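Bench notes, afternoon.
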Amino acid sequence: MKKQKKIPIPVISGTVLGVKVYRGYAPLSVLSQMSQADIYDQVNNPTGTQRDLSPKHAKDAYEYVRDQVLGYWPEVFLCARKMSVIKFTPDSDNSNCGILSVDLAGIEKNKNHISISRIDGNHRLHYADGHEPGMPQIKKEVSFCLAVNLTLDNEISLFRDINNNQKRMNTSHLDNIETRLTGEQKLMQNEPDLYIAQRLGRSTDSPFYGMVYEGGVKESKNIIPLRALKSGINRMLSQQTKLKALKDAEAQYKVIRNYFDAVKLWIPNAWKSPKDYLALRGSGLWGLCALGANVIDRALGKGAFEPQEMLQILSSGKKWDWTNKGSFQGFGGWSGAIKIGEMISDDFSDESGISVKELYKKIMG
């Protein structure tokens, strides 16, 4: 497909809530050719902004605009990351109106480095350029808005605001973006559950290392959604226990990590064959979190916080079947999770007697 070197597009220059933009109308094929999606990949592209593409969603969008006689789409929202590929020439009688020249040749030459990114509209634009056999270009015009002079954090923030406020999307992806927009110290103070959940997925010393899905491109090993783990950690921290009394997110992380190390020793097959076990998904995962509040409280009460010490508590009761058709089959939601925690912890017994202050010194020392 031969592309024009430069495309002139009539636009209006203005500002929307502090964002400098150019607004106009252009064929979907042109908008598709001039922009790229910056797909977030927690391994290969950790600075990306976009969630992973759904081919079905993109195909549905293509077919809608191809076949619809009368229809409507909100404007496509793009961001010029490289100002060298665009040039605005104002009209002589109105400086807010003019021609936006887009250098398609320059964009194509540097396609490995995104010149114009897609903040909102990736699924609408994906097939519109005609790159897919049997899916010719869509030359129907739609409205678009091109933002300029944004930092990457600005762009990510706008992506979050648009998707969080106006449409459903993967909640783990939103949580991941929240951690990227918030400094670590502030996140530890304001959202320790999110801080700890992400640390569990990223720290090489964690039993969940590489297993937590943060949105974007999904790999087979990413079996635990960040939002689900965050919710479970939140439940653990919300209980009136010695874990909550520690108050320091780093100390809480170490204790919670040790607890899940103990769980891995307790149910090793759940890590070897997670699809056959309930422990790492849904109410099974939440059940372990509900149980964790109890186990950790009992361990800390004795001045203990190492995995083997918590394993002793976990192993002190009856043996439970965590397989899909085992002891907890049919347990759903948080009510099922709480029931799982109660059933297991009913067999536990231990003694307490150490102060939170001394616990903190022991953990952090």
